[in-house]
Prior knowledge:
The protein has 251 residues and is mainly beta. It is built from 2 helices and 15 strands.
Amino acid sequence: MPANSKFGFSILVGGKELAEYSHPEDSTRGMVESILVSPVTYWLNVREYSSYSEEMEEQKWPVTPYQIMISSKAGCPYSVFKVFVDGVKVNEVWLRDRETKVVEGFAEQDGSSREFLFSLPRFAENEKDRVESGRSSRVGKIEVNRHDATFAHKAMGVHRYTAVDFVQANKKDVTDITKLSYTMTTTRQGKLIRNGKPCDTSSSAEDTKPEMKMFSYYNIGNEVGKLQLEYHMTHTLIDWGIQLVRPDWST
């Protein structure tokens, strides 16, 4: 897993850590396989507008849920770790030294999360349907940024969550990035997760009034550490001469 003196992170599929590989053109670029065949992979039925055919199309393709496990090392000060997927901040966790947490998915308004899914890119709705220019270079990448957190004060308050505004990259975005030299997966949002388990996306959280509690408040400093992994399709890694090491799904 990518790591520095303060923390490291890895990608999990089915509870198994994915092997990390070095990019053939730059050994500093770490990569994992965006597996689309695994015990936890499922088929997703998608109905979306295609600018190619100019009509609604129904498709079915495999998607694989993944998680991001972040571990702090001895001597790491209390920190907030901001998680970015495809150039969008999708969640954050707070860790003390020698602590590990698993980010299960995209943050939701009620404190739950929604699966990270390795997926084929979606159709573009029209010619203007593109990711922001500053984000395109970060599609296909998972980043974790560390910020020191210093204690400020304690006060009564309500824990408020912010839902993620995430738009999956589409086929035209991917073509612009790769120039057709290789194919890419992207990340899309999946099932809602509550209490560590996927649930029916139609279900809603209990309508309860937020509870006032005593909270410790911290000042968040500038970014003091950043790690990154790229994720690539199986055949792309093979074409680059990578010898793949798959998890042992039997244990």
